[in-house]
Amino acid sequence: MTDTDDEYRPGLEGVVAELATQATIEETLFLLYEDRLPTPDERESLRASLAANRTLPAEALAAVRATAEAGGDAMDALRAAVGAAHVDYEPGDPAADALRAAAVVPTAAAAYWRYHENEEPLAPNPDLRHAADYLRMLTGEAPAERAVRGIETYLNAVVDHGFNASTFTARAIVSTESDVLSGVTGAIGALKGPLHGGAPGPVLDMLEEVHESGDPEGWVHDRLDAGERLMGFGHRVYRVRDPRAAVLSTAAEAFYAEDDAGFFESATEFESVARDVLRERKPDHRLDTNVEFYTAVLHAGIGIPRELFTATFAVGRVGGWTAHALEQLENNRIVRPRARYVGAEGRRYVPDDER
Ligand code: ACO
Fold first, then answer.
1. What is the active site of this protein (predicted)?
2. Does the C-beta of 121 come closer than 6 Å to ligand 1?
3. Ligand 1 midpoint to CA 306 (Å)
């Protein structure tokens, strides 16, 4: 990574698509950790290590259950689970902590959903690939191959993305020489916010509302008149369509080709209508679809509950957080940005009776 690497580069879609649509998440994790693709033996070895680490300690499961019963959301449950994931081993070896974090996030997300639905969580199946086991623990059924390919393409597409807020958070935390699990716990908190990872659930709500309104263009104008933002549009860095949106739109199209192509088509039609209205109403800002828009469309097809969209983002992004944490520790220096004070000068402590 370089310090000027956070911009869009033409052709990126091709590279992202090549990896996202073909690799397993194990291969992508290996690539992030080792800077090369694994041999088949190395891939199998990482798959087995992840599988062996997927089981959550009872204390972490209890925290997930308590969160679900108290009405907390899936991200609250992930934060609690990763916070308690160290109790059955001694944390501190960064590479082992990284693997542990990457392994337990899907187990915690699936367990949250089972408790939420008043069902018992399912134990991980160590024979399965990471992505397939996530879907199985969630639904209780062996997932269809097209669902596994869809989720794996998604996880690969979102695994890492420069210095986004949650990755920066993870790096800042481990730069204090805290441990990698603490970095991941903080990153989960950063990802939770609707301006970062919390958008895809609302994207689905939006698509349903638009469908019910029967007037996409009027619906967009009404939202903008009310001062609202369209979820799944805009990006802090990109001034073009997010290259991941292209990859996920193709993945969603392939997924829906077998049934319900109508839903996919209505989403693409809305994308085009909304983009035109945004161009007209916000000519100074180029607002296009970001990764969250087609995430929502793809996840809905795969059958991931919308309450778990952000947690599923964490299932992928934990690979990037941990790879960044390991890279930070390789040549560590504490992350300590400076702030410029712009308040009043010359103020003094005032005693109570003079205030
Ligand atoms: N819908 C409508 N208008 C928007 C949107 C949007 N989605 N995004 C930005 N704008 C408008 C703002 O209202 C503002 O208009 P104004 O100057 O007339 O007041 C202008 O564009 C610039 O807004 P900023 O807040 O400066 O844009 P910024 O680039 O900082 O924001 C962000 C990026 C937070 C992603 C924003 O586009 C947004 O809120 N999008 C919706 C939420 C979303 O989809 N989040 C997921 C992001 S992707 C990710 O984190 C993985």
1. 235, 292
2. no
3. 22
Map tokens 């001034």 to a residue: 239
Distance of alpha carbon 65 from alpha carbon 61, whole angstroms: 6
User: Which helix (H) or strand (E) element contains residue 180?
Assistant: helix 180-191
- CA geometry: angle at 192 spanning 191 and 193, to 5°? 95
244 with 132: CB under 8 angstroms?
no
**Residue tagged 């800002």 (tokens):** 285
Query: Which residue has the least CA distance to atom 22 on ligand 1?
Result: 285
Residue 2: predicted pLDDT: 40
C-beta 198 within 6 A of ligand 1:
no
Q: Is 237 in the pocket of ligand 1 (CB under 6 A)?
A: no
Q: How far is CA 272 from the centre of its chain?
A: 25
pLDDT of residue 286: 87
pLDDT at 48 over 70: yes
Measured by CA distance, the residue closest to atom 35 of ligand 1 is 235
Nearest ligand 1 atom, CA 165: 50
ipTM confidence: 0.93
Kindly give the distance from the C-alpha atom of residue 288 to the centroid of ligand 1, in angstroms, as a whole number.
10
- Residues with Cβ within 8 Å of 132's Cβ and at least 6 positions away in sequence, in order, are 143, 148
Q: In this structure, what are the phi and psi dihedrals at residue 268, rounded to the nearest 5 degrees?
A: -70, -35
Give the residue numbers marked as catalytic.
235, 292
Q: For the segment 281-291, what is each residue's pLDDT rounded down to a tens digit? A: 999 988 999 88
